[in-house]
Amino acid sequence: MATDGHSTFSSTPQTPIERIKQKLDIVEEIGAVVTLRKSGKAFKGLCPFHGERTPSFYVFPETGTWRCFGCNEGGDIFSFVEKQQGFDFAEALSMLAERAGVTLERSYGGITTAEEAAETATRKRLRALNESAAIWFHHQLLQASEAQYARTYLESRGVNNESLALWRLGFAPDGDALTRYLMSQGYTQKELVEAGFTREREPNNGRPGGLYDYFRNRLIFPIRDARGQTIAFGGRDLAGGTPKYLNSPQSLLFDKSATLYGFDLARDAIKRNDRVVIVEGYMDAIVTHQYGTRNVVACIGSAITEKHIRQIKKLTRRVTLALDPDAAGESAAARGIVVAQQAFDRVAVPVPVPMAPSHRPGAQNRRNVPQGMVRFEEQVDAEITVARLPAHEDPDEFVRRDPDGWRHAITEAQPLIDFLIDTQTAGLALDTPQGKLEARRRLLPVIAQVRDRTLADDYVGRLAQKLRLDKIDLRRDLSATRQRLDREAQARPPLQTSAHAAQAKQATHDSDDTSSVENADTVGGKSYEARQERSERGGGSSAAIGAIEEVHARRASLAGQLAQSAEHALETYCVGLALAYPVAWGDLQAILEPADFTSAETRAIFVALADEMEAITVLQQDLSDLPADADLPTFDPAAFEAALHPALAEVAAQAQEQVATEGGGVPEGADPTHVARDAAYRLKRMRLKAQMAELDALQRDAEQSHDADTLRALLIQKQRLLTQRRTIDAASALFG
Questions:
Q1: pLDDT of 120-173, one tens digit each?
Q2: What is the pLDDT of residues 203-262, one digit of tens each?
Q3: 447 and 466 Cβ atoms separated by less than 8 Å
Q4: Stated pTM of the model
Q5: What range defines the domain where residue 614 resides?
Q6: Per the structure, how many domains does the chain have?
Q7: Within a domain: 719
Q8: Are 486 and 617 part of one and the same domain?
């Protein structure tokens, strides 16, 4: 049940996001993660996003928002799920919609096709089917006499009872027992075959046909998605059969190339440690978790993919590969490094540019890049390391034998270039010219991708020492290699930026939280206190007091809705200005931040715009050496809107329409940047005013309860907000 205060959002919610907010109680949802206690009209607790001793994290049920006055994070139920779970906007929307029982129409136009409705129903049915199978498998492992060997095997691998329950391990006996059980639960033969639980046996040599279980005499590892829901299964053979490992087939729920085993259990530890450790097998993940390394996940099939990295980079930019120390493991690590480098974002970093000999004083570069100063180059925004494990020992064996050694191997993991130098030169006759030449051919292009010149020079020195070559010669070869790679990159057709960024945006354009901070007690607080005072004095008849209270309540509700409507209209206007006048983006971004947008949709669009504009800037700088008449990538509103999630694309279209209407956009002859700057300052003032109102209400509560620590913290925050407001006022006056 939603709190009564949620009714202030909208009496007739129209969008899926509004319906979700109305149906879910934000106090209940956040309270499942944070211990909250009542504080006046709000609830407070210790912030889950930064360490603190005095609670500064508040949830406001009347407005369906939360804010931490310690780290200045805030938002609505969507932003909390995104930040706490590491989800993007689409993932948070899907999870909360399912929890609220709200159907998401793909078109967001109010019409659901028969095919879409059928797919939604199929997904729900498949989730229930997987859950039933997981329970059955787990029961077999715990109770069935045939599972004794599996239980003994797990004990021999060091898996304790707590891990067995945490990962809900199971056992699949021979025969068709699972098929019979699931059909007794009302599932059809077709459903079982499509879900990968059952196979059909053809009659052969007098042997009858029929159904049989896909997983037989195997230890079962339930595979869960990021939300902890079972989506597939992995089975390890225990009888010497082949294949050793068997996985569920691809389905509506399960994509092997996008699923990391243990990700649901490792998420918090990954954020806390700011590092993810990737291992190769189910047992590696389970046992290392058991021994305290809880930021470990495993690839299913041992291949690291770009989809894996998309999930990881929402939580951390630091990746340590701890794959098996054999040829296959080293090969997988090398492939993983390449994939990670390609999938992680790239950032523009300043690199010194020597002054050209022909440069004349006073002359300007045609791209307005000062010569003799710096240029910008791309660098992978990630730290990728490789843990070197003892020969012939998998991670689970190593951690059981030497827990301290395992932890040391992770903390002292080898930089990827060092790992590649070792692995790429293994097997080469480095004392021969041919071996040295091959090593240079393999490694110089890799080192050329390291745009930190100091670090690259260090790597060249290590390679020179390994090959027993002159470092100066290798440095010259590296420069030639880098120039060749740059020429090849420039020779490729210019990128269509919006299309290029679409894939990354689908996973990352909402990677920050989608905030929706409302005014908690702007009007209602004073009305409530006045009513309490009148009630205590006993003045007037109860009927008259009741009528007055009702009027005050209606006025407060109307005032709140009007304020929210005006604020939302201004947010949409700012987004529309950015879409219609890209030249104004710099002014908008300089003044506003994502937390200034109270609507989940407008905030997500603002974040997506920031990602898109940054990508365009980096590409323009990277292509600055192209001929003057070359077409550089520019912002394309239509392509940007097409790449958005449907729930956001609809709002983006409305924002553009609002700006395009007569009187709704930029007045004739006005400078779009000035109009955008004015709108941004107005929105910023609104946000600061709303936050100040929240602090005022909390301050009253703290004073009444004599909570000195909270009061002191709130006063510090009020002073900070006052400073921000003075800065905004001064800037507004300066720029008119």
A1: 778 889 999 999 999 999 999 999 999 999 999 999 999 999 999 999 999 999
A2: 766 666 678 899 999 999 999 998 889 999 999 998 777 888 999 999 989 988 889 999
A3: no
A4: 0.58
A5: 504-517+562-735
A6: 4
A7: yes
A8: no
Same domain, 394 and 245: no
> CA-CA distances (angstroms) from residue 649 to 11, 79, 118?
24, 19, 24
CATH number at residue 197: 3.90.980.10
| Whole-angstrom distance, CA of residue 91 vs CA of residue 314 | 12
Q: Is residue 83 part of a domain?
A: yes
Stated as kind and residue range, the H or E segment containing 375 is: strand 374-380
- Report the alpha-carbon distance of residue 509 to residue 507 in Å, rounded: 6
Q: For 75, list phi and psi in degrees, rounded to 5.
A: 160, -155
Residues 165 and 167: their CA atoms lie apart, in Å, by 6
Does residue 159 sit in helix, strand or coil?
coil
| Side-chain half-sphere CA neighbours of 327 within 13 A | 2
Please tell me the distance from the alpha carbon of residue 64 to that of residue 100, in angstroms, as a whole number.
15
Encoded tokens for 173: 């006996």
Q: How far apart are CA 337 and CA 305, in angstroms?
A: 10
Give the residue among 309, 313, 262 at the shortest CA–CA distance from 289: 262
> Please, is 536 exposed, middle or buried when counting C-beta atoms within 10 Å of its C-beta (0-12, 13-18, 19+)?
exposed
Task: Give the closest residue to 214 by CA, choosing from 230, 229, 195, 231.
Answer: 195
Dump strand ranges (E) for 408-553: 414-415
The answer on 175 and 89 residing in a single domain is no
Q: What is the CA 302 to chain-centroid distance, rounded? A: 22
Tokens coding 569:
């209209």
CA angle 81-86-87, nearest 5°?
A: 65
- Does residue 630 belong to any structural domain of this protein? yes
d(CA 142, CA 145): 9
**Structural domain includes residue 84:** yes
Distance (Å, rounded) from C-alpha 520 to C-alpha 725?
19
Is the same domain home to 80 and 160?
Answer: no
- In this structure, the answer to whether residues 435 and 582 fall within a common structural domain is no
Task: Dig out the tokens for 570 from the structure.
Answer: 């201004």
What is the number of alpha carbons within 13 Å of residue 24 lying toward its C-beta?
A: 27
Helix (H) or strand (E) holding 422: helix 416-425
Upper half-sphere CA count for residue 616 (Cβ side, 13 Å): 22
CB 570 within 8 A of CB 562: no
Say if residue 200 is in the same domain as residue 225: yes
